[in-house]
Amino acid sequence: MSQQEQPQPRLGPIEVATVETLSSDPPVPDLVLADVFLRQHGKQSTDQQQQPSTVRAFYASSKPERLYFSSTRQLHAAVVTCGGLCPGLNNVVRAITLTLHHEYHVQRVYGIQGGWHGFNDKEYPPMILTPESVDSVHHQGGSFLRTSRGGLDLDKVHTFLTKYQISLLFILGGDGTHRGAYKVHEHCRTTNLDVAVVGIPKTIDNDIDYIDRSFGFHTAVEAAQASIRTALVEAKCTVPNGIGVIKLMGREAGFLAAYAALGSGGDVDAVLVPEVPVVLEGPDGILPFLQRRVLEKGYAVCVVAEGAGQELLEAIQETEQGSGNKKLPPIAEYVRDEIIKFFDKVGSECRMKYVDPSYSVRSQPANAADSLYCIQLGTGAVYGAMAGYTGFSVGRVNNRIVYIPIPQLVATSPRFMNPHGEIWQQILSTTGQPSPLKKTQSEAES
Amino acid sequence: MSQQEQPQPRLGPIEVATVETLSSDPPVPDLVLADVFLRQHGKQSTDQQQQPSTVRAFYASSKPERLYFSSTRQLHAAVVTCGGLCPGLNNVVRAITLTLHHEYHVQRVYGIQGGWHGFNDKEYPPMILTPESVDSVHHQGGSFLRTSRGGLDLDKVHTFLTKYQISLLFILGGDGTHRGAYKVHEHCRTTNLDVAVVGIPKTIDNDIDYIDRSFGFHTAVEAAQASIRTALVEAKCTVPNGIGVIKLMGREAGFLAAYAALGSGGDVDAVLVPEVPVVLEGPDGILPFLQRRVLEKGYAVCVVAEGAGQELLEAIQETEQGSGNKKLPPIAEYVRDEIIKFFDKVGSECRMKYVDPSYSVRSQPANAADSLYCIQLGTGAVYGAMAGYTGFSVGRVNNRIVYIPIPQLVATSPRFMNPHGEIWQQILSTTGQPSPLKKTQSEAES
Amino acid sequence: MSQQEQPQPRLGPIEVATVETLSSDPPVPDLVLADVFLRQHGKQSTDQQQQPSTVRAFYASSKPERLYFSSTRQLHAAVVTCGGLCPGLNNVVRAITLTLHHEYHVQRVYGIQGGWHGFNDKEYPPMILTPESVDSVHHQGGSFLRTSRGGLDLDKVHTFLTKYQISLLFILGGDGTHRGAYKVHEHCRTTNLDVAVVGIPKTIDNDIDYIDRSFGFHTAVEAAQASIRTALVEAKCTVPNGIGVIKLMGREAGFLAAYAALGSGGDVDAVLVPEVPVVLEGPDGILPFLQRRVLEKGYAVCVVAEGAGQELLEAIQETEQGSGNKKLPPIAEYVRDEIIKFFDKVGSECRMKYVDPSYSVRSQPANAADSLYCIQLGTGAVYGAMAGYTGFSVGRVNNRIVYIPIPQLVATSPRFMNPHGEIWQQILSTTGQPSPLKKTQSEAES
Amino acid sequence: MSQQEQPQPRLGPIEVATVETLSSDPPVPDLVLADVFLRQHGKQSTDQQQQPSTVRAFYASSKPERLYFSSTRQLHAAVVTCGGLCPGLNNVVRAITLTLHHEYHVQRVYGIQGGWHGFNDKEYPPMILTPESVDSVHHQGGSFLRTSRGGLDLDKVHTFLTKYQISLLFILGGDGTHRGAYKVHEHCRTTNLDVAVVGIPKTIDNDIDYIDRSFGFHTAVEAAQASIRTALVEAKCTVPNGIGVIKLMGREAGFLAAYAALGSGGDVDAVLVPEVPVVLEGPDGILPFLQRRVLEKGYAVCVVAEGAGQELLEAIQETEQGSGNKKLPPIAEYVRDEIIKFFDKVGSECRMKYVDPSYSVRSQPANAADSLYCIQLGTGAVYGAMAGYTGFSVGRVNNRIVYIPIPQLVATSPRFMNPHGEIWQQILSTTGQPSPLKKTQSEAES
Questions:
Q1: How far apart are the C-alpha atoms of B311 and B336, rounded to whole Å?
Q2: To bridge B58 with a disulfide, which of B104, B305, B402, D232 should be the other Cys (CB 3.0-4.6 Å)?
Q3: Minimal CA–CA distance to A142: which of A375, A363, A357, A360?
Q4: Cα–Cα distances in Å, from D291 out to B341, C81, C149, D281?
Q5: Hey, are the CB atoms on A63 and D425 less than 8 Å from each other?
Q6: Would you state the pLDDT for residue D261?
Q7: Among the residues of B52-122, which ranges form H helices?
Q8: Average pLDDT of chain B?
Q9: C50: distance to nearest CA of chain D, Å?
Q10: What is the distance between the alpha carbons of residues A375 and D268, in angstroms, rounded to a whole number?
Q11: What 8-state DSSP symbol labels residue B364?
């Protein structure tokens, strides 16, 4: 009980992520600290004077007391959804529409159809969004605005913005879309278009830096757990040697696979993610591990993120084909086939139960937690734009809605899951699966 | 209002499907008519004396007033699940167990593990089923007894039946399993084993003749509809030209695909089933039809039963590879690729959204309607066995639980969906898809 | 094996339920037998010549080859939903609308708003129903046409039918509504309005005679089971002496309570329905029975249909208040309070978990099984009307869609659950609850 | 773009919430900042030197490098669940059990049955919890350990702890339970029982201070939204003047009502919570507001937290009955009746659709988001206890699992929803309902 003798942690200076503004007289924002974790080093560090590290902070979202756009009743706004589907898109679009109409009585809200392509208005004319037209869209999955990949054409966007006199532009999309959104923002600056450009980050992979989680992620985890349940039921009920393999999304980051596996409790025996090397055979190999599990309890279940084992597949590709051309190989199918071969090799037989939920994970309507988050994002996006902020993205950091400058957001996204962090350690503890990382570390120590 | 002048329809003689019995003094069963539809032919048939057709009838299940097995407290029973999973397996096993214990206080109910393999008791020792051990199994999908394909060994079954003194044997499984069950029954007859052998027909494809529907089918349709919804959301929300293709089970019969498509209402544009030839191109082709739909409304959704288009694929196989070896080709993947090619050929581009729900359709727990049905099946199976009937299967015909002699059941199973019947006609009416059948018919008439 | 010696059952003459028709030259319908159960009486009846009983038959629904209404492109139809909500209303209305438009290309389909009240078009102007406007209504619960109780005014209906030139009128509703529909039909006859009047029977209680089940019933049972689960979880997890009481709909018939209890398996300890007298205390009393259950396993769950125990409550009312005025007393609340008092009286204490799902049972969207049924009903209703039949109701009998003359339908509805039938006997067998009926019977015999 | 001229915010000193420890040489914990929101006041505050406020911090949970309990293989632990049910109880108990067994290989984990009562081991003998016995409990709602209210007897707890040699005691419960847990902790201290006592806060009302949210809350909001949907469907589909009233939990705080209403989007017209005075009539009255809504769109939906309007009911009680005895009156029923009376008074009529989901909100199995949270709580609880911390509760603060001293936790719990905070402001913005608070404030200003 000698806490008072312990070194008092100290907080460093605040480094504020400044958001650009259209106004020459911008409001003074409240702030939200991003870094809340202070590592202490006990007695061994008392002798040396520890330098407190900088604490990052973001602008807090709040209803602006002063509006940049003065006559809101003449304002025109536009909303667009880009890239793949994600639970909650309709909820965010709806919240933006309702806030613009109910709180600011703007003249018109346009829904751009089909992503960036929709700025070419001949093919996909913009919809007019009203409280009535968005009334029940949040009960449906997908995006009623429709979406597409790529297709940004700055000239067409410019033409659209001037033709429809848009002052506020809300863009829902992932990394690439955000980079595009920032180009639009810069273009508006250069050409003196007085438009507030706001991004709302969307990803089913939860791989956006800084924010607590991306919208729709809880819903996706719920759906992914249903697929794990399917594979479990099949593997568990089949003799001999049922093995379930579930392919989940996660090109760069394994959050979805890890969270779904963890949420499923002990139902999963192994998880393969992009952040941890995939080792098939040998003492740390996943194949003999799965075989041991099957021996113990009669069946096993393995979750594979689609981006796992890139290094493995590339090595195999080089060896086998002498070709190193970068393409994303289907790791889950590869693992499935290797499991079958491995059982065959050791004279056993397995019943493979392969489950690829694919679109069913992302086409769901948002669940309660995501619904609420989407409302907060939509409202925060409108508040920020009405205050005159621009070139920013809206997200939740430490349970507060904040504004993040787009360049800062895209600089470190996609983020990865820390294989030494809490989630992955709990995966290892729950599954007991071999950890190639640990070995690497201990080898380094020896 | 001249109904009285119409010819009075007449009912023909009753043809009863007689169930074998262990008893020399069998009970007199009540009957359930199987044929309830009387076709009338109006005035044009009045002059000719129409011969009334035979009316088939099955033994009605009921609680036996007289039991074949006298001292039920010494009775041993066994239950086994064979083949693929299906919603409701646990419910049926549970109902059998509860009825045996609660109504007849039998000494022991064995759960054979892992299908026919479980009769070799060393590898998979039988479980002892009690009301407590089956208490909540009906809330889980799959089969807690586990299952497998094939593996019937009459000697091992014989050894098991004598070793464990089994008097009642309940076998859940499909066509093949029922053929096996009848072999067991005949073996028992030959070797004077006094065992009532009862089959409970299980199929996710609903392709068993005579019965109203197979257990688990409602639940499977519900799950299949969820997959259709997924593909619809993706196709509808993607520009340009989103096309959803959903692969559903149905090797010989398209009931699941047809019911799920119909239940989804206008969400489906085309359904391909084994019963109707698949035509890809030309005026009746599914490819130009889907393209037209995409032109009209921006997207299209197509459901493909796994057994559809056999004749087409075989023809292609022969043409392209010069090989006619019978194997089930993956039609859904083939159609998916052909759609992409077709759009490409006509200078367009489509966004393919392929959904294969696979195991998720059959690993669900039974829904309310199926739960109830499973209870009735389990109870009926026990009643029939206790009455001394054997070599029969239990099913629902015209909403009554009946006993069907296994030879009669397997003679005409799998049954097919009538392409001139109500369901398929409603598919055609709902989707407006081209109907190769109709053309063939009209061609024949000309 | 002496079946051939058994008396051959014989079928009696067919009694066809003749449907009225607008045409002087009506089509000759196919028929569906309603009575499929043949009771046999074994040897004891061989000596006496048994008279075969009449077999009832209904007109089978089918797509008419000849239409009563010749120029369908000028036809106007109207649909109305009356009475309380029920899963599937939107599905039926949608199926009627789609069939009228897609198969007959009628000029106009009106949706009457708010039940009978909507015929007074000033307050609730009729909606125009198109394939587009009903596109996704089947994914929502309730009735998008809205509904109300009572309010039939023949003059207003007459004015509406003539003003809007309605030739086909589809009325969804219960007993009362059907009586009203028949009055409309008779009125049309009297006033020479050439209108086909079709009823589609709707009841959450499944208490309509002849038909296999009412639409929405499967969905309602599913929802009711969720409530039973809630009460079970609460009762089971609470010490000491958790008791769950679930109030379910069922004013005259206990089908919903019985089916939900049965489908929940052994989760329910007792079911109280209108068809079986409620006895509280004494050897057959439900109160000491529940207390015994609580002693045995720590908790108990009791389902109460809202119409149960009328005779008990009336007797109590008379005794206690000297007043015999007919009003439906809240039996579930009464039983709840009596359970608490009884435990108190015997020196124990119970934790009451009372669950009243009320509207949640009937406001669900239709599940897969009901969706399909609704499509068949809607299509069948249109087929019948187009053929010129009128004053009939559409339903499913032995898995076939048939037309039932409204007078015959309402004559014996609401029907009751047979307390000596299969369902109730399985309730008794599953729950082990005391059966006042049995006692009464045996007393009568002595 | 003159952010650099703005006053730089400053962070105040850190105030660490010190957790008690059994060890004389406690570990040095990492810290998590609790206060992340920095209010800035713009130019008006530049002249005055603003004092930076204290920043609170909690001990971060982490896997201890040094264990207080050395020979873990001889350790005995116990878990108990107290108070009402809540989604996720089984998940937390399971995570505690698995972590103790898998990571520390403790000798025995006891599950105390039925809350505090279970420490009297004769009536409710403790269960032995193993990885097998808890394998699938997380798929069920409720608490498989069962629970009860009250019943803490320190002597019995003492006897139990010594008899079973418990070193780690995990207590899941609400405010009252935590106060009891701290008494147990103090008792252990006083009597030199070397027991780590850990609380895991449980509340369906989300009214525990400091933490991001309480476990099970997301699941409860999901279930509550289902009830809102039921009332909406009924009110919307009924003519004339359908009004839905939904009673939700929330004795002291309206989080559940507010979150569920917000998550339901525009489906709710008014929300009554304990934190905001309920005004029935007059310009700010809820009754005329609801009537206006009904006039506008034909129906209205109102959510009532069970603890709302206490002041109103007490005032009415005093006036009408002259009695001021404190008892929680049924506000939702009161509001329901007043709505009916109000419509009656103004010569109109309403169709009341009253929905009380009661137990269905809290008896659900945990959804994906809550499942994950429960695993983190359970693991964190074990880590803290193994490190030798005691008298603390485990929770999530700014997305990190932390240890909160129980006295600090209970000092400010239940917390209230801030009626000037983001959530309530969004309720007002979404619903447009009158805000008695605003009026009061502006009145105060005038």
A1: 17
A2: B402
A3: A363
A4: 59, 25, 21, 11
A5: yes
A6: 96
A7: 89-104
A8: 90
A9: 54
A10: 14
A11: S
Interface predicted TM-score of the whole assembly (ipTM), two decimals: 0.91
Residue A148 to residues A365, B234, C227, Cα–Cα distance (Å): 19, 11, 43
| DSSP strand pairing (C108-111 vs C127-128) | antiparallel
Q: Count H helices and E strands in chain A, helices first.
A: 12, 15
Whether cis (ω within 30° of 0) applies to the bond prior to A414 is yes
**Rounded CA separation A14/A58 (Å):** 10
- Give yes or no for B97 touching A (CB within 8 A): no
- Give the pair of three-digit tokens for residue B351: 């966004």
**Separation of alpha carbons C27 and A54, rounded Å:** 88
Contacts of A122 (CB under 8 A, 6+ apart): none
Q: Using one digit for the tens of pLDDT, what is the confidence trace for D405-434?
A: 999 999 998 899 999 988 998 899 889 999
Residue C271: its H or E element: strand C270-272
Walk along chain A (446 residues) and give the pLDDT tens digit of each residue: 344 455 566 778 899 999 999 999 988 999 999 999 998 865 444 444 555 678 999 999 999 999 999 888 999 999 999 999 999 999 999 999 999 999 999 999 999 999 999 998 687 899 999 999 998 899 999 999 999 999 999 999 999 999 999 999 999 999 999 999 999 999 999 999 999 999 999 999 999 999 999 999 999 999 999 999 999 999 999 999 999 999 999 999 999 999 999 988 778 999 999 999 999 999 999 999 999 999 999 999 999 999 999 989 988 877 766 544 545 458 999 999 999 999 999 989 999 999 999 899 999 999 999 999 999 999 999 999 999 999 999 999 999 999 999 999 999 988 999 999 889 988 998 899 998 875 444 444 44
Return the amino acid letter for C210.
Y
Residues 16-35, chain A, touching D (beta carbon < 8 A): 16, 18, 20-21, 24, 26-33
Strand-pair category, B55-60 with B14-17? parallel
Cis ω on the peptide bond leading into residue D240 (within 30° of 0)?
yes
Q: Does B135 touch chain C (CB under 8 A)?
A: yes
Chains that touch D (3 or more CB pairs under 8 A): A, C
Contacts of C63 in chain B (CB under 8 A): 425
Q: Is the dihedral of CA C375, C376, C377, C382 positive or negative?
A: positive
**How far apart (Å, rounded) are the C-alpha atoms in residues C110 and D239?**
18
Interface test with A, best of B147, B239, B351 (most A CBs within 10 A): B239
Are D171 and D198 a contacting pair, CB within 8 Å? yes
Chain C residues in contact with D229 by the CB 8 A cut-off are: 141, 363
Identify the residue whose tokens are 């009978």: C116
Whole-angstrom distance, CA of residue A171 vs CA of residue A181: 7
B277/B282 Cα distance (integer angstroms): 14
Rounded Cα distance between D170 and D150, Å, is 17
Residue type, C250: G
**Lookup: tokens for B373:** 């049905």
- Bridge-based pairing of strands D76-81 and D108-111 is parallel
Residue bearing the bigger pLDDT, D373 or D445: D373
The alpha carbon of residue C89 is apart from the nearest alpha carbon of chain B, in Å, by 14
B35 noted as active-site residue:
no
DSSP state of D21: B
Q: Which domains does chain D have, with CATH numbers?
A: 72-215+367-411 (3.40.50.450), 218-360+420-435 (3.40.50.460)
The per-residue pLDDT for range D302-352, each reduced to its tens digit, is 999 999 999 899 888 777 665 445 454 589 999 999 999 999 999 999 999
Single-letter amino acid code for the residue at B113 = Q
Give the Cα-Cα-Cα angle B97, B103, B106 (nearest 5 degrees): 60
For residues C414 and C214, the answer to whether their CB atoms sit within 8 Å is no
Q: Give the list of residues 6+ apart from residue D427 with CB closer than 8 angstroms, or none.
A: D258, D261, D262, D271, D433
| Residues of A with catalytic function | 205
